[in-house]
Structures are given as structure tokens and as C-alpha cells.
Amino acid sequence: MDTPADDTRIDLLTALVGLDLPDACRPGVRANLALLDHYAALVMDFPLPPEIEPAPEYRP
């Protein structure tokens, strides 16, 4: 179910990047934002001990 918070978030994000989003695309955007929120929560909730330090450089 769509909530006003979803619509407000979409309005803010589209305004931020200057995107004109047709109403027909909003359900897909809502679904993708929910998916991204889920993945972000997995990353942020992953427990790391305090002694872990960031890698000195990134290697893909």
C-alpha cells in the first residue's frame, strides 16, 4: 500500500536530481526503493567488531 511518506520521499528524490517522473512509474520506483532499503539494512546491520579497520585501498 502506498503511504504519504513514500510519495514525499519520491518527490524529494526526483526534485533533487531534476527528474520529471510520470505517475505511471511511481509504483516501480516505490518497489525499487523498498528493495534498496532492505539491502541497505542488511549492510548497516551487519555486526563488525570495534577493532576492525577499513582497508587501506579498494581492490574490486
Describe the structure.
With 60 residues, the chain is mainly alpha-helical. It has a domain at 9-43. It is built from two helices and no strands. The chain has helices at 4-17, 26-44. The longest helix is centred in the middle third of the chain and has 19 residues, at 26-44. It is elongated and about 45 Å long. The model has no long low-confidence stretch (mean pLDDT 90).
How does the major sheet shape up?
none
Rg calculated over all Cα atoms: 17 Å
Number of DSSP helices?
2
Oligomer: single chain
Can you give the helix content as a percent range?
55-70%
Q: What is the number of strand segments?
A: 0
Summarize model confidence as the mean pLDDT: 90
Instruction: Give the SSE string.
Output: HH
Secondary structure layout:
Layout lengths: L3 H14 L8 H19 L16
